[in-house]
């Protein structure tokens, strides 16, 4: 159709500027590299400066534009500075991917107050803080896109992950609330709900549970497609939501989990 970008076409994000939290590894890194190939300038936001700078170098070595900003996404001042630096460097902000996240594998009884607060701050408060900074800029420019990383466990519960499930459930409904509030400003807000994906965070879960990575990954693959996801596969779903291919999609939670939530079997 005329006027609608072909999803997956070369440079589907040409001229856009995307800020990606948790961009130094995992899904964030894969998305940063994919967005850069699609023509977007990338602002990699993370606490891990070494790995974040390596992502930036990869993008710039390939002819793209990128900037690293060290940021504690639980701090308002850091989030404000990250958005300001993005605009100062590239002149605009079109896409915000709130992807930074952590997990604590424990029941309510075994989760400390400090652990609860840290998970909620990293997984939920960060979405609030960065969106609060980015939305006025997007609105002034005529629109934008926000994508949040939730989880399959933001839709159904999981064992020994009380704080994580609570945080990701909050992300799903915060996404819908923002979509309602800012649709008239031409700002689309969606979230992805990945299933188990081969990232450093997933492997850290095995250590938290005291089981081998091999066993944990094998158990995680028990879904219709009989495997865990790749970060690059999740990144493709994020690209869909960031691009004009999803121009009539807002307020949705897109499940990308190899069929894990399709049924009880």
Helix content: 40-55%
Write out the strand line-up for the largest beta sheet, numbering strands in chain order: 3-2-1-4-5-6-7
Secondary-structure element pattern, one letter each: EHEHEHEHEHEHHHE
- Supply the number of helical segments: 8
Mean pLDDT: 94
Tally of structural domains: 1
Largest sheet: 7 strands, parallel
Shape: globular
Give the end-to-end Cα distance, rounded to a whole number of Å. Answer: 40 Å
Mind telling me the C-alpha Rg?
18 Å
Under CATH at level 1, the class stands as Alpha Beta
Structure description:
- This protein is α/β, with parallel strands linked by helices and about 260 residues long.
- The chain has one domain (about 15-195, about 230-255): 3-Layer(aba) Sandwich (Rossmann fold), CATH 3.40.50.720.
- Helix content is about 45%, strand content about 15%.
- The chain contains eight helices and seven strands.
- The protein has a seven-stranded parallel sheet, sandwiched between helices.
- Helix 6 crosses helix 7.
- The longest helix has 29 residues, at about 115-140.
- It is globular and about 45 Å long.
- The protein starts with 16 loop residues before the first strand and ends in a 9-residue tail after the last strand.
- Mean pLDDT is about 95; it is low at about 1-10.
Summarize the structure.
This protein has helices at residues 26-37, 49-61, 76-90, 113-141, 162-182, 200-209, 213-220, 231-242, and strands at residues 17-21, 41-46, 66-70, 95-98, 144-149, 187-194, 253-256. It is of the alpha/beta class.
Give the topology.
Layout: E1 17-21, H1 26-37, E2 41-46, H2 49-61, E3 66-70, H3 76-90, E4 95-98, H4 113-141, E5 144-149, H5 162-182, E6 187-194, H6 200-209, H7 213-220, H8 231-242, E7 253-256
Parallel strand pairs: 1-2, 1-4, 2-3, 4-5, 5-6, 6-7
Helix pairs in contact: 1-2, 1-8, 3-4, 4-5, 6-7
